[in-house]
Each structure stands twice: as C-alpha cells, then as structure tokens.
Amino acid sequence: MGSYIDKIKEKARSDVKTIVMPETTDKRTLIAASHIIQEGIANIILVGNEEKILDGAGWLDIDLTGVEIVDPSKTDRLEYYVEQLYEIRKAKGMTEEKAREVLLADPLTFGVMMVKCNDADGMVAGACHATADVLRPALQILKTAPGTKLVSGFFIMDVPDCDYGYNGTFLFADCGLNQDPNAEELAAIADTSAKSFKNLVGAKACIAMLSHSTKGSAKHPLVDKMVEATRIAHEQYPNLVIDGELQTDAALVPSVAKSKAPGSEVGGKANVLIFPNLDAGNIGYKLVQRLGKAEAYGPMLQGLAKPVNDLSRGCSWEDVVGVVALTAVQAQLV
Fold first, then answer.
1. Maximum CA extent, the chain
2. What is the pTM of this model?
C-alpha cells in the first residue's frame, strides 16, 4: 500500500462513516471487513445469513467483532425498504411483492436501499458481481447528484517511483462505465473528475483530454471529438485547467510537451487523464497497473447522489480495504 492510501485511511478515520458490503459469500469481503474494523477506517455492515458469515470467518480465522450483520429475511427494516423501493420504482412496474422478492434475493439491491434510507453512508461491491449488477440498482434507486449530467467511472492510480502527475498519483476516467461518450459527456466527465481529484487527492486537477493526436497532428473523427470536448469544457466549466487534444506523452512529460504542445498550461503537468472511450480507459489503467506496478483503486463512481463503488473482480482484499476507505471519504463530502 502506498502512502496515498494511508492518507485516505487517515482522512476516513477523522469522521467515521458506515459502509455496507453485501458480497459476504466472497472471502475477500470478510477479510477486508476484519481489517477495516481493526484499522478504524469505517463501520461495516455485512448483508447475509449471520451463521454462514460467522462460519466463513471461523474458517478464515478472522475476527469480525464490531461488524454489524444484517440478514434481509430477519431485519425489521425489510418492510420499510419494500415500501420505499415500491415508491421509487412503481412507475417502472414495480409491485410491493416484487420489491420484497428482489430485496430478499439480491443483496446488492438490499445494500443500495440501506444507503438510500440512511442506514449506511455508502456501499462497496463488485468482487464477485459484474459492474452492471452493481450499477443498475445504484442508478435506479439513488439517481444522480444534483447538478450532475451523468454518472461516470474512474480509477485513482498510485504509481510508485513516478515523477509525473501529483507525486505519482493520477485520476483516470472513464475506465469503467460509459462506453463511447460524446464530446458533451466527456466535458461533463472532466468536470466531475476534477472535483473527485480535489476531494480524494487534495490537489487541483490539471486535465488532459487524451487522443492519438496532439494539437492537430492527426485528422480523424476521434480526434475531433476530443477537440470539441475540450472546447465545451472551456465554455461550460471555465474554472477547469484543461487542454486537448493531447497524446499521453505530451500530457505527462514536460520535454515532450515543450515540442508537441508549446504554451499548453496542461502539457507536461497533467494529473487527470480523460480517455476518448472505455476501450482506451480500460486498457490504459490495466497497463499502468500491471506493467507500472501501480495501485489501482476503483472503478469508483462519481455523479451518484450517494457513494456506491464497484470493485474489479480481480481485486485483492487489500484493494477492497482501499476502496472502502475512499468510499468513506466520498461519504464525508455528501
């Protein structure tokens, strides 16, 4: 764990929030929960059958003292959640019977309802569920935050022994959600990413709109999209420090920026990288994670009314601890 995540844990401890973790059949969830409680990072609620969860803890030889366990079939909050879910989704054909069925069968929806009803401050899941399964109830039930155009996914990348970015720390977006955002959506992603970077890293965002071209070096509709996204961002979010289109080396390396993008206020200084589409974002973060040995925290979600974050299915229990810490810090800012 790099020093970045240690600072986040410290911040999480300063105002302890309650995070629900619904994937209790996954051993990484149980191990992470034990460490989170021991480190005082957050209060933890595990969703599921208490006997099975405690059996799992016994088998793993971990201590879950201090963790709250909520069994959907036994909690006296179930009927209230049923009523609330029905109200939120009745226009989409939801009945009370169906709401009860979903809440008893799907721990992710149950976890999101806990957040919606203020019984938890945030949720972390995705170790054994696809991103779509985590996002669907979050988007349907929590909706977007006021003034936010769309929900997007990002990673905080902490790269060891790196002179670029903010002491080797970056935000990459969108790497987990929007497959092919248009220029206006990319501008909105840049704006929410700037806020996330400030909140989670504590520094001012310097945003590069990435492309295979720098300042007209190539002609292609994909290049035009990033140029237009930059123009819209300047117009709609005038406080952003943003430039594009930039190739990755021009965005990060001062000497390259000097020759490829002279006069750019972002060139050679970028710490927030906005990718043209999900292919580029997903490939980019995994290359940096695996070849650059970076810690990758996410995919975090930005733009939701309350924090729900997705885990990569290849995550370790240490990654889960990191994402819970980040979620707790996000919850402090809601």
1. 65
2. 0.87
